[in-house]
Amino acid sequence: MALPPDTAESFVREVDENLRRDQMAERAKRYGGLVAGAVVLFLVAVGGYLFWQHRQQLKAEAGTEQLATTLQDIGSNQAATAPARLDSLRQSDVDGVRATAGLSRAALAVQQGDRKRAAAVYAEIAADDGLSQPFRDLATVRGTALEYDTLKPDDVIARLQPIATPGQPFFGSAGEMIGMALIAKGQKPAAAQLFAKIAADKGVPDSLRSRAVQ
Questions:
Q1: Is the Cα dihedral 102, 156, 173, 165 positive or negative?
Q2: Cα–Cα distances in Å, from 48 out to 38, 39, 40, 58?
Q3: d(Cα 91, Cα 80) in Å, to the nearest integer?
Q4: Do 109 and 121 meet the contact criterion of CB atoms below 8 Å apart?
Q5: What residues contact 53, with CB distance under 8 A and at least 6 apart?
Q6: What is the pTM of this model?
Q7: For the chain, which has fewer Cβ within 10 Å, the N-terminal or C-terminal residue?
């Protein structure tokens, strides 16, 4: 005997709902563990990142404080232990602390007459691909200026060419040394063109622009 239309529709809906309920239960049983595991892994990853970020902040604060104290001691002519302290800070995981400690260590070596040590530190900073480019470029410029008299003109040009681009932070300093190297090679027209670019670049310090004009 056939069911009335309303009853038949109600029966079909009930069967569909039961079927969907059974399917959802089966899926939950089958994949519930995987979903729960994924949620746990996500929470662990987030928690680990936040913990790492907090530790990095603490390291940065501690390293910055130690660096400031060391530089203050150097300024007060109390530099006896400064080299060792700066060398220790050069191992920091914090880029800014590591770079500033290295640049300060090289400058202190120059002040103490140890140019070989200073050049080595500048070279290490320039080669540290974990540091941002401005730190590395600054180390390259200072290291080249320190060793300029012992370098061949071609070596000076090759080392500084990537930095001597108008608009770059150290264009003036790098360009000036390249210009002098070009003069040493007898390439005065090329040097004149480079000095003209330096003189016209308003981002270059006035002292460098003045020398370029001369």
A1: negative
A2: 15, 14, 12, 15
A3: 20
A4: yes
A5: none
A6: 0.67
A7: N
User: How many other C-beta atoms can be found within 10 angstroms of the C-beta atom of residue 168?
Assistant: 17
CA angle (7, 8, 10) in 5-degree steps: 65
Q: What is the DSSP string of 93-133?
A: SSHHHHHHHHHHHHHHHHHTT-HHHHHHHHHHHHH-TTS-H
Residue 172 tokens read as 């003036």
Residues in the chain: 214
Least confidently predicted of 38-47, 83-92, 127-136, 202-211: 38-47
Cβ pair 103, 146 in contact under 8 A = no
Query: What are 158-211's pLDDT values in tens digits?
Result: 999 999 988 888 999 999 999 999 999 999 999 999 999 999 988 888 888 888
pLDDT at 210: 87
- Report yes or no: 169 and 204 within 8 Å, Cβ to Cβ: no
Task: State the Cα–Cα distance between residues 83 and 76, nearest whole angstrom.
Answer: 15
Query: Would you call 80 exposed, middle or buried from its count of C-beta atoms within 10 A (0-12, 13-18, 19+)?
Result: exposed
For residue 126, what are its two tokens?
């320039």
CA–CA separation, 130 and 124 (whole Å): 11
Encode burial over 130-166: b for 16+ CB neighbours within 10 A, e otherwise.
ebeeebbbbbbbbbbbbbeeebebeebbebbeebbee
Whether residue 96 contacts residue 131, with contact meaning beta carbons closer than 8 Å, is answered with no
